[in-house]
Amino acid sequence: MDVKLPHLGEGADSGIVVGLLVKEGETIQKEQTVIELENEKAVAPIPSPASGVVTQIRVKEGDKISVGQVILVLQESGKPAAVESPEPVSAAVPAATPQPMAPPAPPTAISLSAVPAYEPVLTGVPPAAAPSVRKIARELGIDLARIKGSERGGRIVMTDLRDYIQYLQAMAFQVKQTVDVGAAVPAKPVAESIDFTQWGPVHSEKVTPIRRTIAKKMVESWTTLPHVTQYDESDITDLMVLRKKYKEAYQEKGAGLTLTPFILKALAAILKKHPIFNSSWDEVKEEIIYKDYYHIGIAVDTEAGLLVPVLRDVDKKSLLELSIELEELAEKARNRKVSLEEMKGGTFTLSNQGGIGGGAFTPIINKPEVAILGIAKGALKPRVRNKKVESRLVLPLSLSYDHRVIDGANAARFITDLVLALESFTEKDVELAK
Fold this sequence. Notes:
This protein has 434 residues and is α+β, with helices and mostly antiparallel strands. It folds into 3 domains: 2-76, CATH 2.40.50.100; 107-177, E3-binding domain (Dihydrolipoamide Transferase, Irregular); 215-430, Chloramphenicol acetyltransferase-like domain (Chloramphenicol Acetyltransferase), CATH 3.30.559.10. The protein has 8 helices and 19 strands. The strands form 5 sheets. Strands 9, 12, 15, 16, 17, 18 and 19 form a 7-stranded mixed beta sheet that branches. Strands 1-8-6-3 form a 4-stranded antiparallel beta sheet, with no helix packed on it. Strand 13 (300-302) and strand 14 (305-307) form a beta hairpin. 25% of the residues are buried.
């Protein structure tokens, strides 16, 4: 049987092979991982659907593969080996000869009346098409399952692909014409490739799927959400004294008591007090969706890039539970073992750069969330207490929020309450149950 790449989840249809865990001639078991696939922000194990002997491997490390592509050929246990034969070509359907694609007409010359009426259909069955057609469609990011072939048996030829591209172009132009352009929208500048070797030696590296995903998400968030950042500082001198006092007790329980669990505990309480920060804007229905659960994304710096696994039900967990789960989740992220599912469903994000250094910064909102909290490195600063100037450990806070949903006054109240919460921890909040 052909073992094919299964459906990877919503919006994911391809990935890069980063680990090949079997070899030809090897006997494998059902559900045994055969390859590791890097997709979006995670490395996913791909299991075998059956037990048997690997007779042929069709991929190698570094290959980009798509859903439905054959990974390997498996001789199932208890079944006779099949002799592989070339795919028959019907005499009634001659092999399609690659045809040069005509350059698309300028958008202003296209209208829906200029192309055939078209209704894309999804049959759930991979369509028949020549390799040349598949290659062009793959390079253009077009799903052939949405094209109805004009040849016998629904086979898709180059003409069908060209007609579909013209259809999409006409639809895009029509939508553009119907948009209210009360204010002129500047066109996106055309990307330009620069030859940097003219000034000196260079070197380059391939952009990984993770880095491409990060870039895409950041650009989308920054260009579609009106960002505003509210800054403040919290005096965490007393909090760090508590942390130092109970650090060993937590270590005996297998937990590292860092500053982050304290922040998570405070955040859960403040999000309940200010539920607008735990919401999302539904752009289709134009509604604000308030979430009655508190799943906080934790930005983790890894060699592959920034990953944001989600710590769920933060409001229901003790400081000890948060410390243990936070450490486990961060370790999984650094080892690229965190799954896509573990990075979904967040309601708010925390980005703590204090361990690296630097001052206050402007974090970008993790869409579809409406706010993110940035934590920088604490520093000793002079503070007036009881009419005396003292040296205190001060933590910079940066709260970025979606101004469509949240007003400045709300942000000021939120960060003021958060500062107070961080400065109000007591021994009762930290001590472990006996």
